[in-house]
Specification:
By secondary structure, the protein is an alpha/beta fold. The chain has three domains: about 40 residues, no CATH class; about 45 residues, no CATH class; about 170 residues, 3-Layer(aba) Sandwich (Rossmann fold). About 40% of the residues lie in helices and about 20% in strands. It contains ten helices and nine strands. A six-stranded mixed β-sheet has the order 6-5-4-7-8-9, sandwiched between helices. It has a three-stranded antiparallel β-sheet with strand order 1-3-2, covered by helices on one side. Strand 8, helix 9 and strand 9 form a beta-alpha-beta unit. The radius of gyration is 22 Å and the shape is globular.
Length: about 280
């Protein structure tokens, strides 16, 4: 199995497993006739994505905030000693229900990530999208995010509320069909339907796009139906900055510039951290 020539988008990463992930689609065409070879190739690509993800995310911590609850109601946590003594200053008279426990809980957040998988997507871009999906999976509960791929139509790869392993999330992106034009309107409509299935008050759509829609209607009216729509704008010769800004403004969100696709996982991680504050 040989590798294609590096593109201008390539970075200096020489990890052979990452190279398998980048070339996965081309290599898979040759391996599909041999199921065992195809399975082995998929596992190598997944491992390459995981290794790249760990480099991006490092030793992460989910964003949490403190809550203090009476001891009988608290499942776990540390005793908030000063606050407990404020409630019952005489130690001999402290009852179990007087004890306050400080627990750390995650800020509830539902995310629908909308990923362009039209014909303009190369193997490297798809691999980096898979890294982004893995970052999302590591930052949120398994039932708190959805993945939607879109070209001429939109397709749910991972549904809101459904459980999925990290490996399954990565494979969903790697094996997503790359075809058709770019229907942002369909992607936004599908993302909205997924967010309605979530349980968190904060519901956010994250749209990965260069702003060009070549199929479907004007996506701005659908963007207005979002409580919050964040746009990760991929910069290239064909991008439409004004369209991205209109979409983000309509969706009460912001535009985050992604100057090179290799920066996508980092920009996504920064965005998720800001949302979870």
């Amino acid at each position: 199995m040989g590798f294609a020539e590096e593109s201008p988008e390539a970075d200096d990463d020489t990890d052979p497993l990452w190279r398998v992930a980048v070339e996965y689609r081309e290599l898979k065409k040759r391996a599909d006739r041999l199921p065992m070879e195809a399975d082995a190739l998929r596992e190598l690509a997944v491992e390459g994505i995981l290794r790249r993800t760990l480099r991006v995310i490092g030793h992460f911590r989910r964003k949490t905030h403190s809550v203090r609850t009476p001891w009988p109601e608290a499942g776990s946590g540390e005793i908030a000693l000063l606050e407990t003594l404020d409630r019952a200053p005489i130690v001999d008279e402290i009852r179990p229900e007087d004890i306050l426990v400080e627990a750390r809980i995650e800020k509830p957040l539902d995310v629908a990530m909308l990923i362009d998988t039209s014909l303009s997507m190369t193997g490297r871009k798809i691999a980096l999208c898979a890294v982004g999906a893995a970052v999302l999976a590591l930052r949120l509960r398994a039932d708190a995010y959805s993945l939607v791929a879109f070209g001429s139509t939109a397709r749910v790869l991972k549904a809101m509320g459904a459980e999925a392993t990290l490996r399954e999330t990565i494979i969903a992106i790697l094996d997503a069909p790359v075809l058709g034009y770019t229907n942002i309107e369909a992607a936004l409509a599908t993302g909205l339907a997924q967010l309605r299935r979530g349980r968190a008050k904060l519901k956010v759509g994250i749209l990965l796009t260069d702003g060009k829609h070549t199929e479907g209607g004007d996506p701005v009216p659908t963007a207005r139906r979002y409580r919050r729509l964040e746009v990760l704008m991929t910069e290239d010769y064909n991008m439409d900055r004004e369209a991205c800004q209109r979409l983000a403004a309509a969706g009460h969100g912001h535009v985050t510039e992604v100057r090179r696709y290799r920066h996508l996982p980092d920009r996504l991680l920064e965005l998720l951290r800001s949302l979870q504050r």
